[in-house]
Amino acid sequence: MITTETHGQAICLVDPNMPRLTAATATAFKDEVSGLIDKGYDRLVIDLAGVGFVDSSGLGALVGLLKKVGNRGEIVLCQPADSVMQMFRITRMDRVFKFLPDRAQALDALKEG
Amino acid sequence: MPLMSVTIQPVLAEVDALAPRLTAAAQPYLTQDRLVAFEIAVVEALSNVIRHAGLRPDQPVGVDMQGSANGMEVTITDDGPPPPGDLFTRPQPDDPMAESGRGIGLILMCANGVEARRENGRNSLTLRFAAG
């Protein structure tokens, strides 16, 4: 189950709380974050520090969330492990998602945006 | 050299439990970058079998892993119906905003060799990873 930290009425920091974002876990993750978006939190920082592996289903869940926030919101990913970043590079999704090094910078970026 | 031979139940959580063990066993044979590619390809292949092979709970998935000076070889076997013959040769979708459909393309990108066979009523998929 994800943990969240809200910052104002629209910004939320999400910790997936799972070592692997994969076919086994992606649907539950997406459903939980999707519920946050439904509540109006459409500017999200997703902290990947604790996620050691992302597969195509995990990537698909993140893409689904990005599509859900659409133009009215934003998703910033932070602290991806090298192995996770490699998955984004292989699939060229490093060009689609915004990455920042840590939570503070990611939150600042959303507050300024 | 045989490194590991295991069977898992056809549930996705089993893939998450097994994949780190397979990657650890592959570590002496592959560089760090190739290890990541190894885990991506093997996870995608196992997940694909479990999601799409129509296996019953009593039909396990076999995983055999071999290492050599040339690299690694992983063979995944199952008793499901045969997959489409063009599974690994059909054009792969190229929509960056797709939420699914990347698995086969990732297997082909991450493995150095992919061989799918049907033998004695079993599906067999061998993934090869070059050393270095």
Write a concise keyword list for the protein shown above:
heterodimer; A: 113 residues; alpha/beta; Transcription Regulator spoIIAA; two-stranded parallel sheet; 41% helix; globular; B: 132 residues; alpha+beta; Heat Shock Protein 90; 5 strands
Topology summary:
The complex is a heterodimer of chains A (113) and B (132).
Chain A: E1 3-7, E2 11-15, E3 20-21, H1 26-38, E4 43-47, E5 53-54, H2 56-69, E6 74-78, H3 82-90, E7 98-100, H4 103-112
Parallel strand pairs in A: 2-4, 3-5, 4-6, 6-7
Antiparallel strand pairs in A: 1-2
Helix pairs in contact in A: 1-2
Chain B: E1 2-8, H1 12-26, H2 32-52, E2 61-68, E3 71-78, H3 103-110, E4 113-119, E5 122-130
Antiparallel strand pairs in B: 1-2, 2-3, 3-5, 4-5
Helix pairs in contact in B: 1-2, 2-3
- At the first level of CATH, what is the class of chain B? Alpha Beta
Number of individual domains of chain A: 1
* Radius of gyration of chain A, in angstroms, nearest whole number: 13 Å
Cα Rg of chain B: 14 Å
CATH architecture title of chain B = 2-Layer Sandwich
Helix fraction bin of chain A: 40-55%
Word description of this protein:
The complex is a heterodimer of chains A (113) and B (132). Chain A is of the alpha/beta class. Chain A has one domain: 2-Layer Sandwich (Transcription Regulator spoIIAA). Chain A is 41% helix and 24% strand. Chain A has helices at 26-38, 56-69, 82-90, 103-112, and strands at residues 3-7, 11-15, 20-21, 43-47, 53-54, 74-78, 98-100. Chain A has a 5-stranded mixed beta sheet, sandwiched between helices. Chain A has a two-stranded parallel sheet with strand order 3-5. In chain A, helix 1 runs parallel beside helix 2 (56-69). The longest helix of chain A has 14 residues, at 56-69. Chain A is globular and about 35 Å long. Chain A starts with a strand and ends with a helix. Chain B is α+β, with helices and mostly antiparallel strands. Chain B has a single domain (2-83, 104-130), classed as 2-Layer Sandwich (Heat Shock Protein 90). Chain B has 3 helices and 5 strands. Chain B has helices spanning 12-26, 32-52, 103-110; strands at residues 2-8, 61-68, 71-78, 113-119, 122-130. In chain B, helix 2 runs antiparallel to helix 3. The two termini of chain B are 17 Å apart. The model of chain B has no long low-confidence stretch (mean pLDDT 94). The A-B interface holds A 20, 22-25, 53, 55-57, 59-61, 63-64, 66-67, 82-83, 86-87, 90-93, 95-96 and B 11-13, 15-16, 19, 33, 36-37, 39-40, 43-44, 47, 50-51, 96-100, 102-103, 106, 109-110.
